[in-house]
Amino acid sequence: MYTLITGGTVVSSTGSGQADVLIEDEKIVAVLEPGSGVLGATFLQGVDRRIDATGKYVIPGGIDAHTHMEMPFGGTFASDTFETGTRAAAWGGTTTIVDFSVQYTGEDVLERFAAWHDKAAGKCAIDYAFHQIIGGVDDVSLAAMDTLIDEGVSSFKLFMAYKDVFLSDDGQIVRAMQRASRNGGLLMMHAENGSVIDVLQQQALERGETDPIHHGLTRPWQTEEEATYRAIRLSELTGAPLYVVHVSAKQAAMRIAEARDTGQNVFGETCPQYLWLSLEEQLGAPGFEGSKWVCSTPLRARVDGHQEHMWQALRTNDLQLVSTDHCPFCMKGQKELGRNSFAAIPNGIGSVEHRLDLVYQGVVTGKISLSRWVEICCTTPARMFGMYGTKGVIAPGADADVVVYDPAGRTRISVDTHHMNLDYSAWEGFEIDGHVDTVISRGLVVIDDGEYHGHAGHGKYIRRGLSQYLI
Ligand code: URP
Ligand code: ZN
Ligand code: ZN
Ligand code: ZN
Q: PTM N6-carboxylysine: at which residues (predicted)?
């Protein structure tokens, strides 16, 4: 089965140009001179399907390296299953997710990993891989890290917050980092000082401050910066590469930049919510409305310039990529759990469907270049997490994960039209310059012309190698 995408501008992380893309079954087999017929008329008569991309961008499928489908958290479960969440991702031009298998304190890592496989198997519309959350560092879980690398899980997330649930103390962090420095794994860090936050939360609640905005006010930037700095120093001490997830404070991004400037293998991601939304406008919305935007790290004050700094850091490669941290909770029955106390609002925002569109607005507004958009949404995630070559690039031999993006199209984000299993949109009313027209996942057209043609079970598990991004 041959598919030929003609007339488009192929955009890569290093540049762009007119080219046609030939796909055979699940793989890209050639990138051709536009309309060249290089392969000869006879051969091209054998093309089963042509996709006209005239006036549009042809980019590698998006990779969202941070999602939480069906994650048990805050007394409930993230509302997207692997089935609904990967379908929504496909609608937005994402063709691979890296989700987090979760070990809570006291659980067995490999048992939980097997359970995560069971949840995802046969359900996904697009390809998927796993990171492993280690919520209890001990001899058994440390040994499991070696086993997991053989299973294609080369990155491990630790938490410096959420006591008795996830939190690792500094000694545990050092032990996990020592292990990663030996086995080649990448240590991912939720960098917030949890014991300080717990005290600030308690004091706020004692003062009767229960509104959602206090979620942000009790997680001030110092708690993120301090934890980020501590993680960087422990990474230096142990020689383990470090990847800081969901960076929102400019001071934390600055610590990451400093570490990178000294040659350390330290990396960071930010998320669309930290690029576009703020503490004042969203988290501080009247009444309980702000609960829609309760996530950790929290949205930051626009008056302090965090959002603009995140764009700046992406521009200069102080931060390497954008993931969504997709962890949706419905208002009804989920966010509602925290009506009487911000501390009981499940933490998370749903954006898996909107990442390419939201980051593309940075191209439209001149914050980043077209190639940088592709780099931070598609190519770097593949390199960072050991999938590059197969994923993240339009080149012969790569999986045929391709998006045709129309820069002249328009997309209006709304709960009425999104495909996530979520009863509100954190992005309600956002007007996007640009539109995901066609999405191909390993050769299968899953989205075309506003229609879904995919199916649960098309997506397969990707065994990742070690990071290809290390210095
Ligand atoms: O609020 C968030 N980020 N929820 C998901 C869990 C995490 O810490 O990434
Ligand atoms: Zn986290
Ligand atoms: Zn997360
Ligand atoms: Zn159709």
A: 157
The pTM score is 0.98
> Under CATH, domain 2-59+396-409+418-452 is a member of which superfamily?
Urease, subunit C, domain 1 (2.30.40.10)
Instruction: For residue 239, give both structure tokens.
Output: 């020689």
Q: DSSP characters for 176-189?
A: HHHHHHHHT-EEEE
Give me the architecture of the 62-384 domain, per CATH.
Alpha-Beta Barrel (3.20)
State the CB neighbour count (10 A cutoff) for residue 138: 14
Q: Characterize the bridge pairing of strands 20-24 and 2-6.
A: antiparallel
How is residue 160 annotated by DSSP?
S
> Given ligand 1 and candidates 132, 297, 299, 347, which is best to mutate, with the most ligand atoms within 8 Å of its CB?
347
Quick check: 35 pLDDT over 90? no
Contact 177, 157 (CB under 8 A): no
Is the separation of the CB atoms in 246 and 325 below 8 Å?
A: yes
Q: How far is the CA of 351 from the centre of ligand 3 (A)?
A: 12
pLDDT 10s digits, 373-420? 999 999 999 999 999 999 999 999 999 999 999 999 999 999 999 999
> Domain coordinates of the chain in residue numbers?
2-59+396-409+418-452, 62-384
